[in-house]
Write a structure and sequence with these properties.
The complex is a heterodimer.
Chain A: E1 6-11, H1 13-30, E2 36-42, H2 46-53, E3 60-71, E4 77-83, E5 93-101, H3 105-115, E6 121-129, E7 142-146, E8 152-153, E9 169-172
Parallel strand pairs in A: 2-3, 2-5, 5-6, 6-7
Antiparallel strand pairs in A: 1-9, 3-4, 8-9
Chain B: E1 3-8, H1 14-25, E2 28-30, H2 32-39, H3 46-54, H4 75-89, E3 92-95, H5 99-102, E4 109-115, H6 118-129, H7 133-155, E5 167-170, H8 176-191, H9 200-215, H10 221-232, E6 237-239, E7 244-248, E8 254-258, E9 262-264, E10 269-273, H11 282-294, E11 300-303, H12 305-314
Parallel strand pairs in B: 1-3, 1-4, 2-3, 4-5, 10-11
Antiparallel strand pairs in B: 6-9, 7-8, 9-10
The chains are: A alpha/beta, B alpha/beta.
């Protein structure tokens, strides 16, 4: 794998696994005996979803949502759902599994989109959270790690589709 | 008060939907049998009640011939008056009775129509009343004609006109529970945003805002790009809507003020964009700090050059330089 621009590892594979154990324990307590629909936001939360969900003990269904930004000719664009949920979430408890929340922009769209389907509740679990200077303050219920506002890759996060399969999370240097 | 009207094709299951919905939402259900039993006896004798059960034409007859000419009203007008009076004090679910016309422009009214294919309805009649297929088809034809005639005779409106309703549900592909769920969701959504059915003003206002946004001139190219990013995420914004005084001279004249670039209305957040390098942003930072001190209830965010460039790159826009 091309690793020229990889910076220091900020969260190791071991640290990720340990934190996922802690998050799972918390979720098992909070969602005890509830049936929950886990919604993974593709593609970045794929690894987080698979690792976390296997530690959960309450009844659950796995579902996936993919969002994409489309640019129009005039360079304006819109965020759209390119793969919609399989299940209806009306009247159900939903747990969104995100890998990173940076600006809150996508997060805001997600809450609006899923909220319009009248779920019983929506909670958000993110592995990484950049709270420093986040544009929109929206509720995040479960956070794996608070990190500094740097560009990071690995464990699902990419730079131009590369580095997703790194087992750890590292900074990415743009070579400035 | 809330008003739900349901119009339905015979044997489309509209009655059942109305009944269930009225129970779940705590709405008083008013249909033709309720009106015949509770309201019309006040103005109609036994023969007239019998005629009102049988003939739509009879609803155009004068209900109070003894009254002065200008105070005379038809049975249909009497029902309309009673419904409007009832709607002032109760949340209603009205089945039929031309209520979609009576409350057509009522801000708290939602109008639904329930339909189904002829095959669906014939099967339903066969099953529920043991009718043969031909009898069921004939029954449907007569009943549909009656519905159509009632609305045409009294309100000169075409019962089939889809724009009389917020939503038309086809029962062919929807179970009773699914149909109720769809209607309940819409009822719930409209609670936050009530408005009459034929309210074109709102559409015009939306369009105007969009036109304004795309044609608006910005102080800097980066602001235009940022507006595109907000539009992309369906986030509502206003450009430089407010100025906050920050410093005053001894005479009380404002000598320093701050006007953030954007206001995100749904998030009650102001955003100031800066594409200068962070070390040159001291002045802006000072203003934001002062703003937060003087107006602690105001939520304001700065988007720095690096954040903006990351956003611009992510969404393949052209990040502007200041």
């Amino acid at each position: 794998m091309e690793t020229d621009n990889l910076g220091k590892v900020i969260i190791s594979e071991k640290e990720i696994a340990a934190r996922i154990d802690e998050l799972a324990a918390q979720l098992n307590q909070d969602f005890k005996d509830q049936e929950v629909i886990l919604v993974s936001i593709l593609k970045s939360s794929l690894y987080f979803m698979t690792d976390l969900s296997r530690k959960l003990k309450f009844p659950l269904k796995l579902d996936f949502l993919e969002l994409n930004h489309y640019a129009d000719q005039d360079n304006s664009g819109v965020i759209r759902v390119t793969r919609d949920l399989e299940f209806s979430i009306a009247g159900r408890d939903v747990l969104i599994i995100e890998n990173i929340i940076r600006t809150g922009l996508t997060h805001s769209y997600l809450l609006k989109n899923l909220g319009a389907r009248n779920p019983k509740s929506i909670s958000i679990c993110t592995l990484l959270h950049i709270s420093d200077n986040k544009l929109l303050d929206l509720p995040v219920h479960y956070t794996g790690f608070e990190i500094e506002d740097n560009f990071v890759v690995g464990y699902g996060l990419d730079y131009q589709e590369k580095y997703r399969n790194l087992p750890y999370i590292a900074e990415y240097n743009f070579g400035e | 008060m809330q008003i739900i009207t349901i119009s339905r094709q015979t044997a489309s299951g509209g009655e059942k939907i109305a009944e269930k919905l009225s129970h779940r939402l705590g709405l008083k259900l008013i249909d033709r049998s309720y009106v015949l039993k509770n309201w019309l006896p006040e103005v109609a004798d036994e023969h007239q009640l019998h005629m009102l059960e049988q003939s739509t034409k009879f609803y155009t007859k004068i209900a109070n011939p003894g009254a002065e000419k200008e105070k005379q009203i038809t049975f249909a007008e009497y029902i309309s008056q009673k419904l409007k009076k009832e709607a002032k004090n109760n949340n209603l679910l009205i089945l039929g009775l031309g209520a979609q016309i009576i409350f057509n422009n009522h801000p708290y009214a939602l109008h639904f129509k329930i339909v189904a294919s002829e095959e669906y309805r014939i099967k339903k009649l066969e099953k529920e009343f043991g009718l043969h297929q031909e009898e069921a088809a004939r029954e449907l034809e007569l009943a549909d004609r009656k519905h159509r005639r009632y609305l045409w005779r009294i309100y000169e409106q075409d019962w089939e006109k889809t724009t009389l309703y917020h939503l038309t549900l086809n029962r062919d592909g929807l179970s009773l529970e699914e149909s109720i769920s769809v209607l309940m969701n819409l009822i719930d959504l409209k609670k936050a945003n009530p408005g009459p059915l034929n309210n074109n003003l709102e559409i015009k206002a939306d369009t105007k805002q969009n036109e304004n946004n795309s044609q608006r001139s910005f102080g800097h190219a980066s602001e235009k790009e940022f507006a595109k990013i907000l539009d992309m995420h369906h986030i509502q914004w206003e450009y430089e809507p407010s100025e906050f005084p920050l410093e005053w001279d001894p005479d009380g004249n404002v000598i320093m003020a701050f006007r953030p670039d954007f206001y995100l209305t749904e998030h009650d957040t102001y955003v100031e964009l800066t594409t200068m390098k962070r070390k040159y942003t001291t002045e802006k930072n000072k203003k934001v700090r002062l703003l937060q001190e003087l107006y602690p209830h105001i939520n304001v965010k700065i988007v720095y050059k690096k954040d903006f460039e990351q956003l611009a790159e992510k969404f393949e826009l052209n990040g502007g330089e200041e």
